[in-house]
Specification:
mainly alpha, two-stranded antiparallel sheet, 66% helix
């Protein structure tokens, strides 16, 4: 049970990075690149965005590896960290994040959804355990 979050992080990051590779190769016309945070915020400062993202990944990893929290919280932390690692790794290596799932006026990737899902799980646990 102790490593559920680590497993979630590794699986999420690996799956998202693989899907990004496939989408760039197989369907490049359906890929959008994002140099900033969500919705291209601060896209004119990609190095700053990458630096902040890397710092947040370090904090998330420290939280996850502290071993504290219930199994559900560790899984949520792992989802958040996996999505963050995937997107941050791309920011550092490529200078931009590959998005490939259009919903409304925005385009997302699996890492984004993992971050949202992990955040919702953490909120749910916080409210249900009060």
């Amino acid at each position: 049970m102790k490593f559920l979050g680590v497993i979630a992080a590794v699986f999420t990051a690996a799956a998202d990075l693989k899907i990004k590779d496939v989408m760039r190769e197989v369907s490049p016309e359906h890929v959008i690149y994002n140099k900033g945070f969500a919705a291209n915020r601060l896209d004119s400062h990609p190095r700053a965005v990458a630096t902040v993202s890397a710092g947040l990944c370090a904090v998330l990893a420290a939280m996850l590896f502290s071993g504290k929290g219930r199994p559900g919280e560790r899984i949520a932390d792992g989802l958040i960290l996996g999505g963050a690692i995937s997107n941050t790794g791309e920011r550092i290596a490529r200078g931009k994040v590959t998005d490939y799932i259009p919903l409304g006026k925005y385009v997302y990737n699996i890492g984004d959804f993992a971050i949202y899902a992990g955040s919702l799980i953490k909120l749910g646990i916080a409210f249900l355990t009060r």
